[in-house]
Amino acid sequence: MALRLKKQSVLPGFGLAMGWTLFYLCLIVLIPLSTIFMKSASLGWGGFWRVISSPRALASFRLSLGASLIAAAINGFFGLVVAWVLVRYRFPGRRLLDGLVDLPFALPTAVAGIVLTTLYSQNGWIGSQLAKIGIKVSYTPLGIVVALTFIGLPFVVRTIQPVLQVMDVGVEEAAASLGAGLWQTFRRVILPELLPAWITGITLAFARSLGEYGSVVFIAGNMPMRTEITPLLIMIKLDQFDYAGASAIALAFLIVSFSLLLFVNLMQRRQDVAQALR
Amino acid sequence: MPRSEEVTTEIISAPAPGPIREAVAARMDPPSVRWALIATCFGFLGLFLLLPLAAVFVNALGKGVEVYLRALTDPEALSAIRLTLLTAGIAVPLNLVFGIAAAWSIARFDFAGKRVLITLIDVPFSVSPVISGMVFVLLFGAQGLFGRWLIDHGIRIVFAVPGLILATTFVTFPYIARELIPTLQALGSEEEEAALTLGASGWRTFFRVTLPNIKWSLLYGVILCNARAMGEFGAVSVVSGRIRGLTNTMPLYIEILYNDYQFSAAFAVASLLTILALVTLIAKGIVEWKSEAEVPEIYKVPAEEQP
Fold first, then answer.
1. For B296, which DSSP code?
2. A219: closest CA of chain B, how far (Å)
3. What CATH number labels B64-305?
4. What's the whole-model pTM score?
5. Taking CB atoms and an 8 Å cutoff, what residues of chain A touch B11?
6. What pLDDT, in 10s, does the model give residues B67-85?
7. Fewer CB near the last or first residue (10 Å), C or N of chain B?
8. What interface predicted TM-score (ipTM) does this complex get?
9. Which domains does chain A have, with CATH numbers?
10. DSSP annotation of B127
């Protein structure tokens, strides 16, 4: 069986390595994840639907999707600027900034949560300034957007950077010499090349923000119907021992996450094909 | 302008080598645009990265070094640090062995369903941390699948240390495999085949040929995996049950302190994790620089292909 599925190779260790890979994958990831399907199935279609369409669940979906979308859009714009500046220009502090871009990957989300909450609370460094013009950030949906922007920051920058690095400057130069303006060159020459990586980066940032918990619970205030994100609602249902309800919401959430993962994979494959054809 | 001549001769074929390309690129945008973009970049990263980073240390040391040190040597803080080290100390080696096995089978052999396997390895990345913790409650919790059996046999997994380790292992599952797979693929198997035909055993080939070649990306994967393992909050929060001093890792302890309004202490513990994050970033930089410097000659672009 294994011989037919696998091409012949002189290298040893396929059985051992593959066996362990599959065993460990099932043990740690697949079997645990399957419990969500089993538990939600125990509700039946009607029960599943009732949980998913309850006002509190719907409010949390709207908030999670909306805040993640806004945060991803903010990162889409600023991520592009940051990637452009880091690849194209040389200035003091560039390497430092470049290294720091990964900070949200490396910094534990609980730390991000308490520090952002403190900064944006009414007597914090930023919050006190914003309070003067009547903007409240901590404990409002705006605070959630701030936390999710921080969490998603590296994705757009890190997906665009490699594409910008290998991009042919000659084409831009040609466009400019043919009389294209700065904006026209960007829109007609640079943007089409960047688009797949850009969309991938924004989608990754969006997907990451959707599931984020640690940084948001501190800054959100966690009021039901108003600042309660979906992961928090799952947590609350678990604390109330409503395992089936928690699974139903988790399942709906997983379907969205996996669709996004699939979309990113398709985008990347298209990009690979496009590069191979060139 | 005199520049057009020298430029056109340089950019006929792409990609041009670094310094020339940069010179061309820098001349493309007018200074006003360039400075506006650089200012935007500094403003955005300053607001979202530098300011929070500074705030961690200012808040941690705000009440003096003595308060800071007392917060860190508190018995509960020490037990949280110990538990964090224990959790990462088990989860990271487990995922290291898996990462090597997965990379070896995926990068060295062709088999049906390879793409599916790669996608499945990535799954924990796209699962919310809360859901990652939840699945273990569903399995081992009091009302979970094995709940009854575990209670009958007096074994505690959820709301105890094994649960923390399982949740952390799940969350950090893909890190090392994801670093190793592309590295092994890029290296090719010629050297290993040569070692084998010269009579080396499989294990000897692995330790003498493969491992030295992948050591930097292995190290990088371990560093990333470790940072996430020590900093994970959502997943361990679900399985911890928040039993003080018993199931608190550092991030959970930070939450308790913060909710108790012990802000200085919370930021003191947070500063340790922030230092870990900074060390991770520096190590990442060094490893990238090292592995770039060590790219074997054959993988570099031959000089004559550069214009």
1. -
2. 12
3. 1.10.3720.10
4. 0.87
5. 169-170, 173
6. 999 999 999 999 999 999 9
7. N
8. 0.89
9. 42-277 (1.10.3720.10)
10. S
